[in-house]
Amino acid sequence: MEAIPKTEHSSSLQNLNIQTDNLPKERSLGVTWDTEIDAFTFKFDLTLEKPHTRRGVLSTVASLFDPTAFVSPAILNGKLILQEICKSNSAWDTPLEGPILQKWKQWKAQMGHIDQIQIPRCLKPNYLQVVQTAELHTFADASTSGYGQCAYLRLKDKANHVHVSLLASKAKVAPLKSVTVPRLELQAAAGAVRLANKIQEEIDIPDLQKFFFSDSTVTLGYITNTKERYHTYVSNRVQTIRSLSDTNSWFWVPTEENPADLVSRGATPDTLLQSSWLTGPTFLWTEPMVFPSQPQVTLNPNDVEVKKNSTSFATLQNKFSLDKNLERFSQWDNAIKAVAILQKLLNKQPVSDLKQAELAILKLVQQEHFPDEVHMLQSFQPLKRSSALLKLYPFLDNNGILRIGGRLENSTMLSYEEKHPIILPKSAHITTLLIRHFHNLSGHQCREPTLANIRNHGYWIVNAKSKVFQAIRDCITCKKIRGRPCHPIMATLPEERVNESAPFTHCGIDCFGPFIVKDGRKERKMYGLMVTCLSCRAVHIETLEDMTTDCFINALRNVIEI
Hints:
By secondary structure, the chain is of the alpha+beta class. The chain contains 19 helices and 16 strands. Strands 7-6-5-8-9 form a five-stranded mixed beta sheet. Helix 14 packs across helix 15 (about 445-455) and helix 14 (about 430-440) packs across helix 16 (about 465-475). The protein starts with about 25 loop residues before the first strand and ends with a helix.
């Protein structure tokens, strides 16, 4: 400090005697650094009294900025009160009443003790010699109130001296939409691996070992199990955990030894001081470190998050709900390829024909949606009068495909598919895939070209017009191309525009140009100043030699004098 000129010192250090005076406290991003004890502290200013309304609660909670979330359990209680106010649909400026007001006053009184919490800035104390191993221990927990994570750095020197420091934490309130606790526990675990990787990038300690802890055996079962498939919510988060961490680095910890329990439920500043929040659980301080006894973690096969695979295929020709099994496909070509591969595996053939796969799909769809018609034609019986296909004169071809009859049998100009199109039901998912396919081939044209393309390729869809119209309406590309622009509602006109007044009492001004004009033999730029009356819409124009302020003021004075 003596080497730096006093003129370069901050205002708090210019008259400071380092030898005798106490060092000042520096504040940055909501956190106070007490340079005398080299620790981070917090201060909750109760002098700024804000109204006891939803707006005042939000302002107070948002004013507590804790970037590393050292005191996140204490702030979480304030967020829970704000969430409870939001659930009640209270207006922004409606005064709080009853129990919610008492909770708010009690929380503010408790936050007055937050200045007693001190977080040492240095992670390596003086008694620790050369660090031999560095470990990052991250804990996760969730409850019906909230969920979160906390991370601790464990350092050990060659003399087996151990020190554990709180690095960071995160706390979030549970969403308003009802979510099960196992899902929240899994969400907290996914946040734990992201927090650990972020810390590893920031502290830049080589050979940092990472360990993760959760008190939920269900979550550990999701992470360690590799045989079962999960629904989308669980599957995405399990994939995140496995990609960012090693499954062998996850351990179970009892709830009473899990410091993240404070993050998920909230705690007062006094509770944080009395608990192991700042120092971590006791087993981290033992050397050698002994993890809590691990229970046997198994995944319940009847868990609601586990997908049930109950469908089996003995042969492709077996009758089953084809639409239900092909709903995962959004393109006709992909569906044909999948069935072709299935045919290849079942028939043990080196190659499977795509055309045969397409015919197999169409045949099974017809058998599923037109069972009575197929049965009557196979037994050479006439169709019932109530049949929707009666007027189409259907018949079965050599492959058992239901086709349209008619009087075009002797035509040599049309192909067999055009003379006798394949009949498809309106409600089948395969029909939707076919419409999308030919709609794309037609260049996303309107209904008639798409319908003509379908019929030219030998398909006849029952009530096709409405089905094609629905498919085109749901087409994302067509929505982008033919979508109507959104016209916003115009704002209310100002009172100067709608009330009578003397001309040019209220006016608007704007400059335009430049225009090239001749001055003798020279050419120069000229501009215009347009003044319009807001009431009667009269217009007055003045000339400007340039766009400087002085020139504009002179032109404006001419307008005022007129």
